[in-house]
Backbone:
């Protein structure tokens, strides 16, 4: 679960309002690293987006006037939403099962969700192209058990990307939900049942609301990570499903328009920040991203 | 605490609970074995025992959270087999189990909502229940804004508000400090009597059991070893375990002689009152510390057992003094006397004669 806390800490750095003492200098190497490899390039991109090819906001004007760019942004948001939805659909029951299994089964389920996490995205994505092609395992199986007659087109289109990205981003959904569920006292549901709640009602009124912080955290992580995805959509999709990541690459490598590429990056960054801001108004981000405090 | 709920309460008589040959085995481990217990309607029954003695398992079988391996539970003269949510039993947990995302009032309203009680009546009953536990002014606070004692009182109100047939409490005061615990013991007892409900209460604290209960069932190794009032258990324990677990005791383990008039314990031969226990079985003689008398050496004591002993330590406990005495064979004895009420006041290191009247000894079986 370390990966979650780490990413959480990036979002809410400890405040520097506290006392400065000589230990504070130990932060210097890390700050220096961030400055050189994160803040400087970011600044560079911001700068290029408003200086190339000419000084001004012409890149952004073009972005919003061009139907292609807006379509790509909309496509990206739509794709991220679908991926988040399917991750939640699979991830919530999965985390619930993990939390209600014996220690051994829970361990196996955890490994099952983590092993793909440790292998290269490229390898996993290529594996999906093998599985999803017209003569691939998925189609042969579906035909074999008689659900469909002709093979489905699952590659180079929207469903293909959703399947691949859902698989790859699933751990980001399962782990936060699981960690919140683990902190829910088992006596809550027992108490609800003793007070007259049917098992499903006890789940809906007690367990589900208490697990929501995990759902918010997982959904936010999956959505935000999905926004910037490049490799998987590029390999499993077609030009019609181009997402922002792929568009940036196209602008920089093929059109050689660094200004427009940078502007696309800035739009993506602002979109992400806006989403974090909006979600932050609804739920306590600190808590959602695994900060202190139990489920409340 | 008001009795506002008594007036609302419908005049159903409280339900008796009958536990018959109840057993729960986990593989070779017998959490409960052959548990029999008759609880009268309106009775406060405490299940007392050390941790792991099976008292909580019994409680969970009554509540329906644990399926018995064999045996049955009858409530109101009917065998219950329904799932927990249909049993109409109020339950209070050690960790309170208040729903953290609901206010005190919402927590108390929960069982009424589950029973589709109309809103207006529901609000009225929630208010009354919280007033009963003196928390009328905390209705809109979340559990984490309440102290431990307040949380436990909300949990109590929640378990009582739907007028359950039986209320079960699983070590409800375990996490609270002594003063608060004593306060709540009396409050729970008063409410139970006020509302006339059947209560099954689990604790490992013998003092708590003595304060609150009509009767106590003592558990050991998954079985009930003795059931009785606090006084009966203290004055007339039947097994060494009960004598040891409830109150302080001087216990001499050994065997009764052939005519049953003396108990041989090591090199001691102690006169015992008439007993039903067979002379061949292992037995023990129990004498409570306050029954022990201290005398000067050479005192003539008729109708008493007496042993010479050296005063090892004297502990001043405010209203009492506790004497630790050691017999020549190494046996350590304890005597307690109210300050100013003992016939002699020996010093540490002094040799004295410790005695007790034969009828103040209790012979118990040395098992269970």
Residues:
């Amino acid at each position: 679960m370390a990966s979650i806390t780490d990413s959480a800490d990036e979002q809410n750095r400890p405040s520097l309002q506290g006392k400065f003492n000589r230990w504070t200098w130990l932060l210097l190497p890390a700050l220096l690293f961030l400055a050189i490899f994160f803040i400087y390039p970011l600044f560079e991109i911001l700068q290029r987006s408003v200086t190339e090819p000419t000084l001004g906001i012409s890149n952004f004007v073009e972005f919003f006037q061009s139907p292609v760019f807006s379509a790509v942004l909309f496509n990206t948001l739509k794709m991220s939403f679908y991926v988040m939805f399917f991750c939640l659909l699979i991830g919530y029951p999965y985390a619930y099962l993990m939390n209600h299994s014996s220690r051994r089964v829970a361990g196996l389920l955890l490994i099952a969700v983590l092993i793909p996490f440790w292998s290269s995205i490229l390898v996993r994505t290529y594996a999906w192209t093998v599985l999803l092609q017209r003569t691939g395992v998925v189609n042969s199986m579906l035909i074999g058990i008689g659900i469909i007659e002709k093979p489905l087109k699952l590659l180079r289109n929207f469903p293909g990307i959703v399947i691949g990205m859902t698989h790859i981003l699933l751990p980001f959904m399962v782990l936060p939900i699981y960690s919140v569920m683990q902190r829910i006292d088992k006596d809550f549901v027992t108490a609800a049942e003793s007070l007259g709640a049917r098992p499903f009602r006890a789940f809906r009124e007690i367990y589900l609301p208490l697990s929501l912080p995990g759902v918010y955290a997982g959904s936010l992580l999956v959505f935000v990570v999905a926004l910037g995805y490049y490799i998987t959509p590029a390999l499993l999709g077609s030009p019609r499903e181009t997402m922002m990541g792929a568009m940036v690459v196209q602008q920089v490598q093929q059109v050689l328009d660094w200004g427009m590429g940078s502007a696309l990056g800035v739009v993506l960054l602002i979109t992400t920040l806006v989403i974090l801001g909006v979600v932050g108004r609804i739920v306590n981000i600190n808590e959602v991203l695994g900060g202190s405090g139990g489920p409340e | 605490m008001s009795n506002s709920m008594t007036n609302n309460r419908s005049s159903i008589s409280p339900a008796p609970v009958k536990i018959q040959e109840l057993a729960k085995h986990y593989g070779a481990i017998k959490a409960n074995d052959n548990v029999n217990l008759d609880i009268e309607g309106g009775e406060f029954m405490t299940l007392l025992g050390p941790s792991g003695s099976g008292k909580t398992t019994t409680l969970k079988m009554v509540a329906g959270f644990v399926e018995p391996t064999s045996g049955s539970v009858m409530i109101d003269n009917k065998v219950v087999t329904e799932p927990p949510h249909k049993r109409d039993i109020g339950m209070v947990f050690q960790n309170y189990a208040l729903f953290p995302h609901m206010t005190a009032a919402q927590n108390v309203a929960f069982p009424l909502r589950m029973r589709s009680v109309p809103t207006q009546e529901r609000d009225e009953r929630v208010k009354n229940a919280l007033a009963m536990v003196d928390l009328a002014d905390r209705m809109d606070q979340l559990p984490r804004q309440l102290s431990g004692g307040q949380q436990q009182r909300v949990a109590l109100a929640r378990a009582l508000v739907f007028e359950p047939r039986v209320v079960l409490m699983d070590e409800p005061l375990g996490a609270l400090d002594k003063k608060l615990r004593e306060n709540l013991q009396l409050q729970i007892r008063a409410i139970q009597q006020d509302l006339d409900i059947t209560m099954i209460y689990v604790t490992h604290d013998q003092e708590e059991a003595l304060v609150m209960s009509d009767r106590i069932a003592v558990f050991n190794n998954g079985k009930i070893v003795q059931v009785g009032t606090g006084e009966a258990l203290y004055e007339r324990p039947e097994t060494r375990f009960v004598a040891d677990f409830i109150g302080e005791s001087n216990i001499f383990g050994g065997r009764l002689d052939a005519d049953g008039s003396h108990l041989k314990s090591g090199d001691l031969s102690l006169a015992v009152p008439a007993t039903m226990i067979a002379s061949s079985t292992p037995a023990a003689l129990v004498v409570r510390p306050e029954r022990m008398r201290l005398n000067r050496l050479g005192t003539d004591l008729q109708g008493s057992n007496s042993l010479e002993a050296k005063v090892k330590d004297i502990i001043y406990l405010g209203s009492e003094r506790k004497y630790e005495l050691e017999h020549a064979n190494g046996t350590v004895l304890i005597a307690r006397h109210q300050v100013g009420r003992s016939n002699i006041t020996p010093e540490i290191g002094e040799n004295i004669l410790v005695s007790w009247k034969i009828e103040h000894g209790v012979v118990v079986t040395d098992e269970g």
Notes: Confidence is low (pLDDT under 50) at residues 1-13, 292-296 of chain A. The CA atoms of residues 4 and 176 of chain A lie 7 Å apart. Residues 67-99 of chain A form the longest helix (33 residues). The radius of gyration of chain A is 22 Å.
